[in-house]
Amino acid sequence: MRIVSLVPHATELLFALGLGDEVIAVTHECDHPTRALKLRHVTRDMLPQGLSAAEIDAAVRERTLNGGSIYELDEQALRALNPDLIVTQALCPVCAVSHTEVVELAKSIPSQPRVLALDPKTLGETLGDVRTVAQATDSRDAGVELIARIAGRIDRVKLAVRGRRRPRVAALEWLDPVFVAGHWTPQLIDFAGGEDVLGFAGEHSEVFTWEAVAAAEPEIVVVMPCGYDASRAHEEAMTYAEQLAGLGARQVVAVNASAYFSRPGPRLVDGLELLAHILHPQAVEQAPEEAIAVELVSV
Predict the structure, then answer these.
(1) CA 286 to chain centre
(2) What is the DSSP letter of 178?
(3) Which residue has the higher pLDDT, 291 or 21?
(4) What is the pTM of this model?
(5) From CA 120, how far away is CA 133, in angstroms rounded?
(6) pLDDT tens readout for residues 112-130
(7) Regarding the domain delimited by 3-119, which CATH topology (the fold level of the hierarchy) does it fall under?
(8) Residue 199: which of 261, 135, 109 has the closest Cα?
(9) Nearest 5 degrees, angle CA 271-CA 295-CA 195?
(10) SS3 of the chain: helix, strand, coil, percent, to 5
(11) What is the pLDDT of residues 3-17, one digit of tens each?
(12) Scanning 17, 42, 54, 149, which has its CA 20 to 30 A from the CA of 85?
C-alpha cells in the first residue's frame, strides 16, 4: 500500500503500527520517528518565520477566518505519487492542510485514494484511531498490540498515583493570547493524579485572561505551547515570566508539547508519564528517558 500522511500524529501512528515502509510522503512538520525526516514533503508552511506568539495567533486567525489554511499542499507532487491511502484530519485548520481540499484533490488522482480523517478529541478516541488505521491498512494484529501496550502504561500510571493528593493544575497551550488546553489534556492531567482547574476533556482549547487563570488558583502551571519543543516552550515561558509569576503557582514547568501533548498520537502516553512525574515525583520517579524534556521556569 502507498500511504501519504498529511498530519504528524498520523505519521507517528503509521510507523508505530510497523507501516513505515509503506509511507511514501509526509508533511514538512513530520519529525518522528527520524525515518520520517527522509521522506518526501508534500506540504509547506505559509507563515513567515520569526513571528511572536501574538503575531502567529493573529496570522492564523486571519487565514482561517478567510477560509484559508496556514499550510499549502503540493498538489502536483501528491498526484504524481498516486497513493492508495491519504491520512489527514479535519479537527484543526491550524494543524494540517484543508480536509476539503484533500478530498477534492483525491478525486482527480488516478488511483482514487481513500481519504481517512483522524479527529480525536479525547484520549479514548486516540486509541480508537489506532483501530481505524489498523483496519484500513490490514494491520489489525499490530493495532491490538499497540493498544495493549498503551493501555498497560496508562494503568500503571493511574495505579502509581492512586490515593495521593491531587494538585491543582493549569495547562497553557499558548501564552499570547492565553489558551487553556482542552481535548485530551485534561484527561492526561486527571490520569496523572492532578486536577485540571480550567480545561474540559473533549472540548476545544479556550482563550482566557491571565487574571482568570490566576483566579483558578493553580498550584502547578504546565506551559505547553502548541507545536513547540521544550527549549522553545522554555523561551516562551521566560518571555512571559512576569505574567506566569502573577499566577501564584508554586511550580511552573515548560514541556515538549510537540512531542507529547500537541499531537494525539501514540506518544501521548509519554506525555501522561511525564505529567505524572511532574505532579508526583515520589510516586513516578522517572518518566521514560525520551520524555524527560521538561524544564522549570524561574519566575
Answers:
(1) 22
(2) E
(3) 21
(4) 0.89
(5) 13
(6) 999 999 999 999 999 999 9
(7) Rossmann fold (3.40.50)
(8) 261
(9) 50
(10) 45, 15, 40
(11) 999 999 999 999 999
(12) 149
Which single residue is written with the C-alpha cell 492512586? 162
Q: How far apart are CA 122 and CA 143, in angstroms?
A: 18
* CATH value of 165-296 in 1.10.10.60, 3.40.50.1980, 3.90.980.10, 2.30.30.100: 3.40.50.1980
Kindly list the domain boundaries of the chain, sorted by start residue. Answer: 3-119, 165-296
Band of residue 291 on the pLDDT scale cut at 50, 70, 90: very low
* Phi/psi of residue 226, nearest 5 degrees: -55, 125
**Cell numbers 497551550 correspond to what residue?**
173
Contact by Cβ (8 Å): 290, 267: no
Residues in Cβ contact with 162 at an 8 Å cutoff, skipping those fewer than 6 apart: 193
pLDDT of amino acid 31: 94
CB 223 within 8 A of CB 254: yes
